[in-house]
Description:
Blueprint: H1 2-14, H2 20-27, H3 37-51, H4 58-69, H5 75-95, H6 106-118, E1 121-124, E2 127-130, H7 134-153, H8 179-187, H9 197-209, H10 213-216, E3 224-225, E4 228-232, E5 239-243, H11 246-255
Amino acid sequence: MIRVAEDIVTYALDQKIEDPVKFLKKKWSPELETIAAVEREKLLAQSEAEESVTNLDFFYQLDDYMKAKSRKVSPGMLRTYKVMKNRLLAFQKHQKKKIDFSGFDFNFYEAFVNYLTYDHMHMRRNISIRGLKKNSIGTSIKQLRIFLRDRIRRKIIHPIDLTDFKILDEETDAIYLSFQEIRTLYNLDLSNHPHLIRFRDLFVLGSLTGLRFSDFSIIKPDDIRDGMLYKKQGKSDHWVVIPLRSEAHDILITRYKGYDAPLKQGR
C-alpha cells in the first residue's frame, strides 16, 4: 500500500500536479495494489484525461463565466448576470426542455423573447406581474450574447450564428427640470414641513450631479476636492469627475458637511 501511494505521488510530481497529496487521496484505492506499476500509471493518466474533459452543461458554463467576472465588474453588473440566469432557468422550466449550447438558433431566440414578453412572472413592489418590458428583455438578450461569444472565443463551444439575436429596446420619456426649476426647489421654504427638507435636498443633489441614487446617497468628504466631486460608480465601476454647482456644493459642504450626503442625516 505504501509503494502504491509512493507511485501515485511520484506520478503527480512528474506531471506537475499542483497538490500531489490531494491527488493521492482522490486516486488511491485498494484495487491499485494488484495492478503493475506501468499499467497503474496508464490508468492514472486515463483517469486524469477523462476528468479534464470540459463540462459543457450550459448553466455550469454560465456559473463559471459569472465567477470569472466577479472580480472585474461591479455588484450591479453581477446582479444583472443573476437576473439573466434566473430568467433562463424559468424559461427552461416553462418549456420543459433543457437549455443546451446546440439549441441556440432563431427558434430559441423567438421562444425566449415570447416567454419573457408574455409569460414570465416577476415581482414589482410586492405585486406579481406577467411579462417584461422590451428594455428589460433586451438587457438579458445582450448579456446572453456576450456570454456566448465569450465561450466561443475561449473555444469552449463551437461558433454560433447570433445574427438573429436582436437586442430589443423602446423609446422612453425623458422628463427633466430646467435649472431655474431646480433652483426654485432649492430655495423653497420648508420650515413648516421640516421632514421634507432632506428629500428635497437629495432630489436637488441628484438633479445637479446626474448620479444614480445609490451613488450620490453615499458621498464621503474625501470625494469632494477643489469644487469637484470624484465618485466611483457602483454599477459601471467607472470613475466620474463632476464640477459642483454652488447649490450642490452648499448641500454637501454647508448643510451636511459632506457626510453621506443628506441620506445619513435622516437615520
